[in-house]
Amino acid sequence: MASMARIHTSTPLLSAMGVATVIGMMIGTWSVPLEARDADGERLGADLHEVDSTQSGELSPPDDASDWSYFKIEDETRVTITLTNTSGNTSLALKLVDGTGDEMASRSVGNGDSVTVQETLNAGLYYVEVSSESDASYQLGIE
Fold first, then answer.
1. 94 to 32, 111, 138: CA distances (angstroms)
2. CA angle, corner 115, sides to 114 and 117, nearest 5?
3. pTM of the shown model
4. Closest CA to 66 of 11, 20, 8, 133
5. Cα gap 39→100, rounded to integer Å
6. 48 with 69: CB under 8 angstroms?
7. What is the mean pLDDT of residues 10-16?
8. d(CA 81, CA 101)
9. How many CB atoms lie within 10 A of CB 62?
10. Which pLDDT belongs to residue 42?
């Protein structure tokens, strides 16, 4: 059974039973899997990225301007995130976000270059966003 978070809110929520929209003031508690918990709605579609792996991706703004991935850390771990821009004539942005939505690091990288973020992370859930303002392809590694 997935870990559950208890959330009090008056905004749309994704629940284990489906989508519920609450109008006005909500009285009660909703349970949402921690993997789906998201205050701003942008990370709900994140794909699992296993630690010690590299994945390829493509962006095609405006409809697909960013890709979100998430990974889990069981114990305090030194993590290296590497973004390689395999596109020509475009730049990419990399953002590391903790499970509560707080930005921990951000970097940008030009065409054909790589950028690395190294952080010692506590156990928990973390998100990585790769974004671009124009068509781009990339490789994202998390070790």
1. 27, 14, 11
2. 150
3. 0.70
4. 133
5. 8
6. yes
7. 38
8. 18
9. 7
10. 59
Report how far residue 38's alpha carbon sits from residue 35's, in angstroms, rounded to the nearest whole number.
Answer: 8
Contact 90, 134 (CB under 8 A): yes
**CA distances from residue 99 to 13, 27, 72, 74 in whole angstroms, order as listed:** 17, 25, 10, 13
**Residue 109 one-letter amino acid:** V
Residue located via tokens 């709900």: 44
Q: What's the pLDDT score for residue 28?
A: 43
Residue for token pair 């962006």: 59
pLDDT tens by residue, 97-107: 999 889 999 99
**Residue 19, pLDDT above cutoff 70:** no
Question: For tokens 């929520």, what's the residue?
Answer: 13
Q: Average pLDDT, stretch 107-132?
A: 95
Q: Which two structure tokens, joined as six digits, stand for 52?
A: 């010690």
Q: What is the mean pLDDT of residues 11-33?
A: 40
Q: Nearest CA to 130 among 88, 40, 50, 70? A: 70
Domains and CATH numbers, the chain: 4-36 (no CATH), 47-142 (2.60.120.380)
